[in-house]
Automatic annotation (TrEMBL):
It is a multi-pass membrane protein. Residues 22-92 form the NXPE C-terminal domain. It is found in: Golgi apparatus membrane. InterPro entries: Cas1_AcylTrans_dom (IPR012419), NXPE4_C (IPR057106). Its main location: Golgi. GO terms for biological process: carbohydrate metabolic process. One of its GO terms (molecular function) is N-acetylneuraminate 9-O-acetyltransferase activity. It catalyses: CMP-N-acetyl-beta-neuraminate + acetyl-CoA = CMP-N-acetyl-9-O-acetyl-beta-neuraminate + CoA; CMP-N-acetyl-beta-neuraminate + acetyl-CoA = CMP-N-acetyl-7-O-acetyl-beta-neuraminate + CoA; a ganglioside GD3 (d18:1(4E)) + acetyl-CoA = a ganglioside Ac-O-7-GD3(d18:1(4E)) + CoA. This is N-acetylneuraminate (7)9-O-acetyltransferase. One of its GO terms (cellular component) is Golgi membrane.
Length: 756
């Protein structure tokens, strides 16, 4: 990547994704809403000066501020626009030729007595070609006139944003007889003159007139749809107006999905400290490794000079010390985090907007499903939702979710609703898995809790520090963490009811059901009491974890969207384990789960329920209404899938090792995609290899999966060190962790204060 200013790329190069979506070269373009445009341009004066094409751009620009504006008024005269609510003034000044009149108007802005516009957009040429019948003398005069105007524009560029719009090509076959002399050859000559003359006296200066040449590329693709062969269709000029808005506003508004023209964010204090820590870890590991190498050389087999025989002293392989393992893990993690930062915080690699097509989503889905079926093996055990089966389930769901994210399929409502079921299925497994563990093992010790919390949160905490993002930004991890603590609290609070105790007295089963009913009541209350929910999570320091953009609404929305599914997972685990204990189900290899008749009936109902849900989800018209129903009905498709997957014995006895491999690193895949596969915090796509989209996806995917796998191993290694089984050592580690988070909160507060 040769580097360069993304603003320059935005103004000069790009391509169409589909028919209407413009993709600038190397960066992402934000789609500004009216409110955002007003906030950016508040108290600003914008001037468009030129011919009818500039007037078109003027109208598209002001419609970004007020969509109700109609294109009316004197076409060959000045047109004012004002938005009093935001004190925005946008004027169109009719100067169809680059001549003395235009020069005089521009010169008036350079004089101290007149207020300078904040943004000036200028351009003209077609009228000169038309009036002078395309003569060479007119081109010569154009060069003289623009040469006289250029120094004035360059002077204005020191205090204002000045753009010169190059002339778009025309569709010569559609031009009227009075415009036949306007040829693309003539337009190219005028554009070449403008580019050569503008900024000629300030080549090394930062204050330059920005040449708006991207409009030519857009016109080349769309001018055939022009009504008269000269003026661009509305969609094309709207794209030009959006580009202008991005060039000026991105550095002010800093939208996440608008990487064009955004400077690299400065390193925060916490990021600098993290950088120092990882650097010291790498240096420490290299020193220890060097010492070990020297010791190994000294202990190597040496030759006895007298006998000529080789003596091989017994060398015992030394155990890797805890310190060395710790430094080794942090060394690898430091290198990986450097890659994360370079991909999604430094302006080193390119980023592009997503663009959804049905083929970009469904073809990869079919491909991975074929791969998954190809790698089919026998399971070690044939129980319902055995470890291999749940890993497989997590794996294929995670791969589908990844394809959903990179293809931008969230814009297609039926796909969105099915993906919501997959996220719910993850949470269902959370309820099922943790309930089963506590119910069977009866282990409510601190060690178990700390192990689970560490494995869930380690990567996210590191990313919050390195990438300067709030904890709630990685919403899925807070979700599963809170639900784990809710499951733990429900079962650990007196009376502790576990399977061993319940087997002695059936009344304990009713006691557990009573606990689950209390949990359901609390969930129901909080889901319909947003105020109470927000009060709970607005207390410091909880607010530091669950706030996003200054409030906890996003957290409430995410929690509410799948509020019942964890409870459903716990209830399913309870019923399944009770049936299993009473030997009411058959889990032998190749055996159906129930009697043949019952199995066939349940299988038919499951398939019917699965398809019914899919039909309902595919017929959704309104995302808000469907999201309201989703918490109550998502369990239908989840249970249907479990029964379809487990009732036939031959299906329950096999699994896909391909999907199961991905399932073991599913959490790392879900989190890592934010920064090293997608880009701009999931809003775009990371581009390591420009110009070759398929090859780029292959390379970035390979690196992404390897990194996720490596982080999974690092997390497992560190979990053994940071969370030891010995209670006294564990208590000391917990005090150290509490001190670490206290320091983190302190530094975070200092950062917030400095930002304000």
């Amino acid at each position: 990547f040769k580097g360069g200013d993304t603003c320059e790329y935005l103004l000069s190069s790009g391509r169409f994704l589909g028919e209407r979506v413009w993709q600038p070269h190397s960066c992402m373009m934000h789609k500004y809403k009216n409110s955002e445009a007003k906030n950016c341009l508040i108290d600003k004066h914008v001037v468009f000066i030129g011919d009818s094409r500039i007037r078109q751009l003027f109208y598209s620009f002001i419609k970004l501020i007020n969509p109700q504006v109609k294109e009316e008024g004197n076409k060959h005269g000045n047109i004012p626009f004002e938005d009093k609510s935001a004190s925005i003034k946008v004027d169109f000044l009719w100067y169809p030729e680059v001549n003395g009149s235009m020069r005089q108007r521009i010169k008036s802005w350079t004089e101290g007595s007149v207020a300078k516009p904040h943004i000036i957009v200028a351009g003209a040429a077609t009228w000169s070609i038309k009036i002078h019948n395309g003569s060479n003398e007119a081109l010569t005069q154009y060069k003289i006139n623009i040469t006289s105007i250029a120094p004035l524009l360059e002077k204005l560029a020191k205090s204002s944003d000045v753009y010169w719009v190059l002339q778009d090509p025309v569709y010569e076959d559609m031009l009227s007889e009075s415009r036949k002399m306007i040829t693309n050859e003539k337009i190219d000559a005028y554009n070449e003159a403008a580019v050569r003359i503008l900024n000629s006296s300030s080549r090394n200066s930062k204050a330059k007139v920005k040449v708006f040449s991207v409009s030519k590329l857009i016109a080349q693709e769309t001018i055939m749809k022009s009504a008269d062969g000269l003026h661009l269709p509305e969609s094309s000029r709207d794209t030009n107006a959006m580009i202008l808005m991005n060039v000026y506003c991105n550095k002010i508004m800093k939208p996440i999905d608008g990487s064009c023209c955004q400077p690299q964010p400065p390193l925060t204090l916490i990021q600098k400290l993290a950088f120092c820590f990882f650097t010291l870890s790498i240096i420490g590991y290299l020193i220890i490794n060097l010492i070990h190498r020297n010791n190994f050389r000294k202990n190597k087999s040496c030759t006895d000079l007298e006998s000529g025989e080789e003596k091989k002293p017994a060398i015992s392989t030394p155990n890797v010390s805890t310190l060395e393992m710790l430094l080794h893990s942090f060394c690898k993690l430091g290198l990986i985090m450097t890659y994360f930062y370079l991909c999604d915080r430094a302006n080193l690699f390119m980023k592009e907007n997503k663009f959804y097509t049905h083929s970009s989503f469904f073809i990869p889905i079919v491909y991975i499903l074929v791969l998954g079926v190809f790698y089919t093996e026998n399971t070690k055990e044939t129980k319902v939702l055995n470890r291999e089966q749940t890993d497989e389930w997590k794996g294929w769901m995670q791969l589908v979710i990844l394809i959903y994210h990179i293809s931008g399929a969230s814009t297609f409502l039926p796909v969105y609703m099915h993906i919501r079921v997959l996220v719910a299925a993850y949470l269902f497994q959370t309820g099922y898995g943790h309930f089963s563990y506590f119910w069977i093992k009866g282990d409510f010790g601190v060690y178990r809790v700390c192990q689970v919390l560490f494995r869930l949160n380690f990567l996210v905490v590191v990313l919050c520090i390195v990438m300067d993002r709030p904890y709630q930004f990685y919403y899925f991890v807070p979700l599963v963490t809170v639900w784990f603590m809710i499951i733990y609290a429900t079962l650990a609070i007196w009376p502790q009811i576990v399977q061993k105790k319940a087997n002695g007295n059936c009344l304990w089963h009713f006691g557990l059901l009573l606990k689950l009913i209390c949990l359901l009541t609390c969930i129901y209350f909080l889901s319909y009491s947003q105020g109470a929910f927000e009060k709970i999570f607005s207390f410091w320091p909880l607010s530091k974890c669950f706030e996003l953009n200054g409030n906890v609404y996003e957290w409430w929305f995410r929690w509410k969207l799948d509020r019942y599914v964890v409870f459903h997972g716990m209830l399913f685990a309870f019923i399944y384990l009770a049936l299993q204990k009473r030997q009411m189900i058959s889990e032998g290899k190749g055996d159906p789960l129930f009697s043949n008749r019952v199995s066939n009936v349940l299988l038919f109902i499951s398939i019917l329920s699965f398809l019914t849900y899919s039909i309902w989800a595919s017929s959704c018209k309104n995302k808000t209404e469907c999201n309201e129903l989703h918490p109550s009905v998502s369990v239908v498709q989840i249970l249907a899938f479990i029964l379809i997957r487990n009732i036939p014995g031959y299906v329950r006895s096999v699994y896909s090792s391909f999907f199961a491999w991905f399932g073991k690193i599913s959490l790392e895949l879900f989190i890592c995609q934010y920064h090293i596969w997608l880009a701009a915090d999931t809003k775009g796509i990371l581009v390591l290899i420009p110009g070759y989209p398929m090859f780029n996806v292959l390379v970035s995917t390979f690196i992404f999966v390897c990194v996720a796998h490596e982080i999974s191993q690092i997390t497992n290694d560190l979990a053994q060190i940071v969370v030891p089984k010995d209670n006294s050592t564990l208590l000391k580690r917990l005090l150290c962790i509490a001190g670490f988070f206290s320091g983190l909160l302190l530094f975070s507060a200092m950062q917030d204060q400095s930002r304000h």
